[in-house]
Design brief:
Elements: H1 4-11, E1 14-19, H2 26-35, E2 38-41, H3 47-50, H4 60-71, E3 75-82, H5 89-92, H6 98-115, E4 122-127, H7 140-145, H8 149-160, E5 165-170, H9 178-193, E6 199-202, E7 205-207, H10 215-225, E8 228-239, H11 244-262, E9 267-272, H12 282-285, E10 289-290, H13 303-311
Parallel strand pairs: 1-2, 1-9, 2-3, 3-4, 4-5, 5-6, 6-8, 7-8, 8-9
Antiparallel strand pairs: 8-10
The structure holds (3S,4R)-3-hydroxy-2-oxopiperidin-4-yl beta-D-xylopyranoside.
Length: about 300
């Protein structure tokens, strides 16, 4: 059987996985390198990981993942620069003037993007800026800088490294709905203003039985705006324990998602948010749910794995 990455390469698509740096040895490392042509650090590049104390940086895990990817001929998706979550407490708990906050944001972008200059394919510059109703999420950044923090972040990222594709990434924007329409309107406005925006990331943290019927249509409308689209964090969760009927349905749904991306030229590919159930965020975040990835806890491929192969 051909590795997923060879199937994806033949179609000019990305098949990626989120990874944990410390696990990149043994079977986990062999699958991560052998089956995927792109890696996203699951946590290692978040602000709280790289600058836990102001001015003192820890790049160890992020460097490890980028080095591993380069050794294995894989792209890297940087994740993520400007977000409301997983920030260091010194940042969250500080009191900042508008000018200070802007400087903190742009310095952070310059430092992190600059560190990996020329080595990353993509950056998720802004993560999760919207509420479900399409209004802006009230974050440190929005409250301090207004909605234009998004344009400022994209501009700062481009200035720090002209090569990576710059994305805005969010969840529950896979189908056509109020949130994805707000994202659509934002991207349209940014492009009209000449702000550097290359793509939108649809996270796709899905629930079994709930693949949006408008997924492909939604991908297409972003493509028609003149930006790339990526499925950036795919997983399909279910209540535990899972049975074989549910795993078969999950396979069908993985295939639907990959098919929707393959069908649209400007959909660059699909990244799964952890390739094994032993390295998935779902059980920790949604107690009682799991089995969301294409490999089980023992690294055995599940029906979802074969479904991805069929779609590629
Ligand atoms: C998750 C990680 O997988 C977990 O290990 C961590 O505890 C919380 O964050 N949307 C995102 C990702 O953009 O960064 C999140 O990753 C999952 C939801």
């Amino acid at each position: 059987d051909e590795p997923l990455r060879d199937l994806a390469d033949a179609k000019g698509k990305v098949i990626g996985t989120a990874v944990t740096g410390s696990k990149l040895t043994g079977t986990y490392g062999r699958i991560a390198a052998g089956e995927f042509n792109a890696l996203t650090p699951g946590n290692a590049m978040k602000w709280g990981s790289v600058e836990p104390t102001r001015g003192s940086f820890n790049w160890a895990e992020a460097d490890e993942i980028v080095n591993f990817a380069e050794a294995n001929g894989q792209q890297v998706r940087g994740h993520t620069l400007v977000w409301h979550s997983q920030n260091p407490s010194w940042l969250t708990n500080g009191t900042w003037t508008t000018a200070q906050l802007r400087q903190l944001m742009t310095d952070h972008i310059a430092t992190e993007v600059g560190r990996y200059e020329g080595r990353l394919a993509t950056w998720d510059v802004v993560n999760e800026p919207f509420n479900e109703d399409g209004t802006y999420r009230q974050t440190l950044w929005y409250n301090g800088l207004g909605a234009d923090y998004i344009a400022e972040a994209l501009t700062a990222a481009r200035a720090a490294d002209p090569s990576p594709k710059l994305y805005i990434n969010d969840y529950n924007v896979e189908g056509v709905n109020a949130k994805s329409t707000a994202l659509y309107n934002l991207v349209r406005d940014l492009k009209a203003r000449g702000v550097p925006i290359d793509g939108v990331g649809l996270q796709a943290h899905l629930i079994l039985g709930q693949v949006p019927s408008t997924l492909q249509q939604n991908i297409q409308r972003f493509a028609d705006l003149g930006v790339d689209v990526a499925i950036t964090e795919l997983d399909i969760r279910m209540n535990l324990p899972s049975d074989s009927a549910e795993l078969a349905q999950q396979a069908t749904e993985y295939k639907q998602v990959v098919n929707a991306c393959v069908a649209v030229t400007r959909c660059v590919g699909v990244t799964v948010w952890g390739f094994t159930d032993s390295d998935s965020w779902i059980p920790d975040t949604f107690p009682g749910q799991g089995a969301a990835t294409p490999y089980d806890e023992n690294f055995a491929p599940k029906p979802a794995y074969y479904a991805i192969a069929e779609a590629l």
